[in-house]
């Protein structure tokens, strides 16, 4: 294994600082593509973002906004003459709504309030803008805070996220959503007079795992018209072109994840599943052809695909031929639906903007040839090769995963193997670029390690049954799937059984902790933002209701199943050196979960190091912390697997 510290630090800087695009928006006429690039600065500790524009067919991308601020959420007006976006250019950290001419020029601020803004969109007629805004601090709240009269009464005085409608000509806005509902998402009706919203009773994240409601709001205000309720969230609301139907993604089983696509008549009736028994998972969706169809990104195994879905449920692939790779977020299209673009990567290409025509003579081109940007500065020949692999776990249970090998690997050579477990557990590893502070396969491969990225039971991408397979058996089948993958790579002559590592973030951190309590085969482990006590996590994390996707009852009603699958219960069985990393302000998984595991292993004499990061939540934002995190992980495995 490579242990050159100077080279490792150079690599870490690249993995942390490369530029990457997001939020791709095709102009209505299909001529231009707007998108966000972050980071703009390779040296600043602030994560500035800029809006860029690139022609669909030929021509170089250009920076549309300066990049001195946080510019995000670009949205074309329906006639394509203007671009609206959010920016904090006047007051750092406080976004306002701006509108800018298509060809550039001065950006005009059309909405300035104190609350946090998100999810900007134009009305179909181009006369209005809608945006979600969180209630700002009141003068009385500010006075109390400054006077340190800031005691908190839990589950009270919520700051709701509300739906505002803005007139960009008068620069006036109005909140139209109910005062006691949190708006999670919305969609304009084709006639611009109504909006569909999905709401929950409170702003607590946990609400999306419980009962939510979809309702109709009138642009000018008034009482909402409830449509339906469901367990989980109706995501990516889309109106049909005639305004009679509403489509959305929603759960198909106990796991609260938008697996299938449904449609309902706006005037009532039962939901119609447009994708029954689909063997994958739908991850993002937007209107196509102004609501005449749906444009959906789905995962089938480890590959992404793009579908045109009709309101009758008919699916048509819109993806170019060749290895599919991964789309990051939604794919968007021109008004006619014939030009598409999105952010794409695969294991051998960093994320870039790709564009293609939805025509038989164009979709035959392989995806990398459709790249319209080259922002990352990371060449494909710098990246470690990868392949999709399968293995048998329990009899008849076939598991899929991605294997990344060092560029120097020679067939028949046994090398260290590190298993990185994904979070979720309702998530997946896909054929995507895997080099960042959070995705460690490429950096680890540069150490000379093979990296296995498994999608065990409970993962998405293989239909509802696979995602729901861990109900009542948390960590059970998952652990067997992981270990079977390790054994398969040993049997194939790739992995050195004496140099095995395991790591993961969030649920992957939990599974890492669980794994080293169940076996001593691993010589090093990294637990990132993980949980070790399922009972305490239920009280201290912000999504306790998610546990009911995997357990029959809450731990207050039946604690034993939770305690039985808590790694801390088996801490005395750990022999593997463990590095634990956690953000101190993590609300998803409290840092106390990592502290519990550290204190237990320290008391038991097991080699263990705990590193916590001030101000960081469940995902790290500060560049120095991202650098330190990745460098520590690489150093830990280099030390213990050499």
From TrEMBL:
Domain Peptidase S9 prolyl oligopeptidase catalytic: residue ranges: 441-641
InterPro entries xref list: 6-blade_b-propeller_TolB-like (IPR011042), AB_hydrolase_fold (IPR029058), Peptidase_S9_cat (IPR001375), WD40 (IPR011659)
Gene Ontology BP, a term: proteolysis
Transmembrane segments: none
Annotated GO MF terms: serine-type endopeptidase activity
Entry keyword annotation includes NAD: no
Source taxon at top rank: Bacteria
UniProtKB keywords: Hydrolase, Protease, Serine protease
Pfam family, one: Peptidase_S9
PANTHER family linked to this entry: DIPEPTIDYL PEPTIDASE FAMILY MEMBER 6, SERINE PEPTIDASE S9 FAMILY MEMBER
The protein's name in its UniProt record: S9 family peptidase
